[in-house]
Specification:
The chain is α/β, with parallel strands linked by helices. The protein contains 14 helices and 14 strands. Strand 6, helix 7 and strand 7 form a beta-alpha-beta unit. The longest helix has 21 residues.
């Protein structure tokens, strides 16, 4: 068993970054994620592992610093909250277009605009449908516990380098601020220059080598026909993600007549609602997507043959429900319950929504 600690979710993100061999973190403070950078500054990992921690002058600067570090084949990371991620979206699109790995953490807060500093899940569409310009996708992981905040940092880096594509950990202000017991990962040493060359030298800018083409990391291609070919390659990559990287959790779904679909903190709230509904004699299960992209559409489509309805529970006006509707493909009822602007739903409200919208509807 690894080292056990009682830690805040944001603090765990920072600790996990150090332990998984992250080379550099570039960020800018914004509530409710500022503890990520604050923890890194307090830990001073540059003395321990050589990891760079830098507060940039803005979110725009931070994501472009990531672009530079990723171009050299290094593990680089940033974190922000909703308005800050909006500022980073252009740079994230550039990284996807240049096929560069990197991990972006979004600790969501209410919007639109500057909104509130309270928790939200209203960035689902921004995260899963692009956010920036162009036909690109992010790998999107949705933790629902402080333990998964730890586990998903290393997983995000692994998937990001596997597909040479940015990965996002899409969490929220509840998971970021709450404290739980967490088993921290074991330390992985940072890659040496020789390891970076061996692992990533085929594409990264690691210095001009004899008999090798220059590694120019750009997302620019001025010939439309060539850009189309590049985009076709991206789509093939995203299809492979859909085939190989879908992750989800199912709770009380074997005999369920109705299914709640929820991610992040909404899944925790919904799990209690499922318990309350089952105490009342209603066969309700919980389906928790862990990868929001790639979305677990196939398994939801299969479940739609057996259940009477799905309730999408989200802290937004109804965003993930669009993917559920596409997955269900008209086979059964789909409805939504959500609170907006930073208001957190209660298990009782989810119970009432299920009773009124589906079971009693």
């Amino acid at each position: 068993m690894g080292e056990l600690r009682l830690m805040k979710g944001n603090e765990v993100i920072a600790e996990a970054a150090i332990r998984c061999g992250c080379d550099a973190y570039f960020g800018y403070p914004i509530t409710p994620q500022s503890e990520v950078m604050e923890t890194l500054m307090a830990r001073m990992p540059w003395e321990e592992t050589g990891m760079v921690v830098l507060q940039a002058e803005s979110e725009v600067a931070a994501i472009n610093m990531m672009y530079g570090g990723a171009s050299a084949g290094r593990k680089v990371m940033t974190s922000s909250s909703s308005p800050g991620i909006s500022l980073m979206s252009e740079g994230i699109s550039y990284m996807a277009g240049a096929e560069l790995p990197g991990v972006v953490v979004n600790v969501q807060r209410g919007g639109p605009g500057l909104g509130t500093i309270q928790p939200s899940q209203a960035d689902y569409l921004q995260a899963t449908k692009g956010g920036g310009h162009g036909d690109y996708r992010l790998i999107v992981l949705a933790p629902s516990s402080v333990q998964e905040m730890n586990d998903f940092v290393d997983l995000a880096f692994e998937l990001s380098f596997k597909y040479r594509n940015p990965a996002m950990i899409l969490t929220d202000g509840v998971i970021g601020q709450m404290m739980e017991k967490v088993e921290l990962s074991d330390f992985k040493p940072r890659w040496t220059d020789e390891e970076v060359e061996r692992l990533n030298g085929s594409w990264a800018a690691t210095g001009k080598k004899p008999n090798r083409e220059r590694a120019i990391k750009t997302s620019l291609e001025l010939v439309a026909e060539k850009q189309e070919i590049i985009n076709q390659g991206f789509q093939a990559k995203y299809k492979k993600m859909q085939e190989e990287e879908v992750r989800y959790e199912m709770i009380h779904c074997d005999d369920a007549e109705y299914i709640i679909v929820a991610f992040g903190v909404s899944a925790r709230i919904s799990q209690k609602a499922v318990d309350l509904l089952r105490e009342q004699g209603h066969k309700v299960g919980l389906f928790r997507p862990i990868t929001l992209y790639p979305f677990p559409s196939k398994i939801i489509n299969q479940m739609a043959d057996k259940v009477k309805g799905f309730l999408s529970v989200e802290m937004n006006s109804g965003q993930m429900i669009e993917d559920i509707l596409l997955a269900v493909s008209g086979k059964t009822k789909v409805d939504h319950f959500g609170r907006m602007g930073g208001v957190i739903a209660t298990p009782g409200e989810v119970v009432d929504a299920m009773l009124t919208k589906l079971i009693g509807g």
